[in-house]
Amino acid sequence: MQSMQGEKFQRSVRFQKRHKRKFKATRNHHHFLLPRSRGGGMSLNNLLLIDIEKHEKWHALWGNRTADEILDLLTRVVRAKKNQHH
């Protein structure tokens, strides 16, 4: 069963698609914190409203990684750098 918030989001997306020119000026996208392709849902808890350019750059840099996965990766890089012998 889909949540009421998810239904509101879907109605909002359909409305925005029908009225593209009006909403294009806002320059915002919905970013899924846990990608839908990896089991993330449509709930508002899984969505972040983000500027379209920042959204595109996020995915260009990090792909579909979550913030936690990125933090883990960066932490491992810092630890490896500290343990590197000159």
Textual characterization of the structure:
By secondary structure, the chain is mainly alpha-helical. The protein has one domain. Helix content is 56%, strand content 12%. Strands 1-2 form a two-stranded antiparallel sheet. The longest helix has 17 residues, at 67-83. It is elongated and about 60 Å long. It starts with a helix and ends with a helix. The model has no long low-confidence stretch (mean pLDDT 82).
Query: How does the overall form come out from the CA principal axes?
Result: elongated
Radius of gyration: 17 Å
Strand content: 5-15%
**Widest sheet, order of strands:** 1-2
**Total discrete domains:** 1
How are helices and strands ordered from N to C?
HHEEHH
End-to-end C-alpha gap: 57 Å
Could you say which structural class the secondary elements and strand pairing correspond to? mainly alpha
Number of strands: 2
Helix content: 55-70%
Please, what is the average pLDDT? 82
- Give the uncertain stretches in residue-range form: none
Largest sheet: 2 strands, antiparallel
- Count of helix runs: 4
